[in-house]
Amino acid sequence: MSCIFCEQDAVLENDLAYCRVDRFPVSPGHLLIIPKRHAEDWFDLSNAEKVAINDLLEQGKQWIEKTHRPDGYNIGMNCGAAAGQTVFHMHCHLIPRYDGDTKEPKGGVRGVIPEKMQYE
Predict the structure, then answer these.
(1) Model pLDDT, residue 118
(2) Counts of helices then strands in the chain (DSSP H, E)
(3) pTM (2 d.p.)
(4) What is the pLDDT of residues 8-50, one digit of tens each?
């Protein structure tokens, strides 16, 4: 079985992970941070791989800042089909956010269940 994330198309990388532009971006600059080892989700990673992913999150933010100048970020991963995961090779989304890109951003990642997004 082939995996689209086992084919590296890196804009940034380290020994254990790489970062690439999302092919179906939510917003301009949307990046994916992916371990080089095929692991299903965050909970299957070694501590060293988690550190490598975190390092690339920081580098990815700097890369986005240079060209897109967003106003904020969402960081997220889907772990398991019930959480929306469709590619079962762990990947972390670094999604730049821009003032006005959605009518009401309050609640952020809570929007994965829309009726739970607003908590007041």
Answers:
(1) 75
(2) 1, 5
(3) 0.91
(4) 789 999 999 999 999 999 999 999 999 999 999 999 999 999 9
DSSP 3-state of 77: coil
Confidence of residue 92 (pLDDT cuts 50, 70, 90): very high
CA angle (15 as vertex; 6, 68 as ends), nearest 5: 75
pLDDT of residue 4: 78
Q: Which residues are catalytic?
A: 91
Nearest to residue 51, comparing CAs of 2, 94, 17, 84? 17
Q: CB-based burial of residue 32 (10 Å sphere; 0-12 exposed, 13-18 middle, 19+ buried)? A: buried
Which residues, 6 or more positions from 105, have their beta carbon under 8 angstroms from its beta carbon? 72, 97
- Position 93: which residue type? H
Q: Where are the domains of the chain?
A: 12-116
Give the whole-angstrom CA distance, residue 32 versus residue 9: 11
Fold topology of 12-116: HIT family, subunit A (3.30.428)
